[in-house]
Amino acid sequence: MKLIMLGSGTSTGVPRIGNDWGDCDPNEPRNRRTRVSIIVENSLGKRVLIDTSPDLRQQLLANDIDRVDAVLWTHDHADHCHGIDDLRPMRYGRSNALPGYASAATAKRLKARFNYIFAGQYGYPTLVDLSTLDNVRLVAGFGLAHCEMPHGGMDSTAFLLEYDGKTIGYATDFNAITPSMVDVLKGADILVSDCLRRDPHPTHAHLDLALELGRKTRAKKLVLTHLDKSMDYATLKSEIPKNVIVGYDGLEIAA
């Protein structure tokens, strides 16, 4: 099983508009960050996409991805779903819509905002058949576990995908660690964690909280994502334990 990190940046990306790199070295390619999405792929070539970032088209092109078998959404904030239209080429050649999954609250808001995606319109077919995560334990050949995480005034969904005894967890956009998060993500071979900045934030994990999640879950590898312009790649890499990886666009890791 393989993790492909399509995007690793916060909601404004790095650099911010205005060519604002903050503390990030513009000469380090791994500091150029698009908005967060990942793909998990197994040895049979089945792919699950988590989140449809506004940069999804360029991410799929950069990573030579022309097909996915299912889509999961963590929540409906713009930086996690506003690239949803770029799923349209994934529908070409299919006899049915792509299967998609989200929590009941997220699914309700996605359908209200993007009804044409889930119901078709003006002769265009439905792109995604969106279901809630209730009682879903298998997606595109992967075992699936999930839980809700606190994200300020709303929730974001954490996922754990399993295949052939290996697991990859994804926990982005959380500001506290709950027992259910530890239970779902425990022992992950790879755990991707929210890590906005070093200082605490009211809706996101900071560096110490991300590292704490890695310790509490005993993840074998912890990958940091959703990084803002204060998180220079080389500087951050020098500060973290050996089993922790600074995520970057295009990163691939085998579980």
UniProtKB/TrEMBL annotation:
Q: What's in the keyword line of the UniProt record?
A: Hydrolase
Q: What InterPro entries has UniProt attached to this entry?
A: Metallo-B-lactamas (IPR001279), RibonucZ/Hydroxyglut_hydro (IPR036866)
The terms under GO molecular function for this entry are: hydrolase activity
Gene3D superfamilies the record matches? Ribonuclease Z/Hydroxyacylglutathione hydrolase-like
| Record has Hydrolase as a keyword | yes
Pfam families reported for this sequence: Lactamase_B_2 (PF12706)
Q: Does the keyword DNA damage apply?
A: no
Out of the domains of life, which is the source? Answer: Bacteria
Q: Domain (Metallo-beta-lactamase): give its ranges.
A: 34-226
What is the protein's name according to its record? Answer: MBL fold metallo-hydrolase
* Originating species: Parapontixanthobacter aurantiacus
